[in-house]
Amino acid sequence: MVYRYDSNLSFLGELKSEDLNDLVYCLTHDKDGDKRFTEELTQHARYKRYYPNHSMYWEEISAEIQCFGANTFSTFLRGGKGVEYKEVLTDVCDKMKVNYNKNSSIETIEKNMLMKILEDAIEKMSPKELNELAMSTGVKNISGITKESMIGVFQAVFRAGGFKSYQLTLIVVNAIAKALIGRGLSFAGNAALTRTMAVLVGPIGWAITGLWTAVDIAGTAYRVTIPAVIQISVLRQKYIYEKQIGEVEFS
Asked: Which terminus of the chain is more solvent-facing, meaning fewer CB atoms within 10 Å of its CB: N or C?
């Protein structure tokens, strides 16, 4: 397992160790909390030396993602190097039937992936759940609210960027994490997010269950790459948002 330079993963090297907790957990443990048989990260010398100071071995974390997204034999021929993150991400998006433009930025493709899961969840909502979701997200007029209009609200938030987009990413990924790895994000404890998170957990869980049925047929690698790219998407939004805040404070 050897890290290959990847501009779309290099930001991980600028994160705090606590920010990487959930990503490391999903790479090394399954939903039941058992250690994954196929992971190699915990065998690495730098992991053993520095854990839980994840920032000291972020390249090994990145290499694990790259190798999980690659064919084992091809990785061997490349001297232990996997594939770049964009290939891992788009492979996951293809498996999830996400509509995306391959020429779009990584951030946009990640948002399309999260939006697909959110759309699937909203499609499974009852009228009562839809109203609860609308109220929890601050929609002022919920009379006659439809699934299509609610999806439109979220699409607009993602497109706008900034804090609201980061907040929505936190909410969605937290609900996904509970469904995929059995626990929410360790840094998503903001009380203001709790209500919306609670409304989404059930429907997103159902959407993920349907996805997992297809994944079971496709192969075990997706049980790692899907939660991994979802974790990376929220870490990227956190990194971008905090960087923007820092620039405002020093301008």
From this structure: C
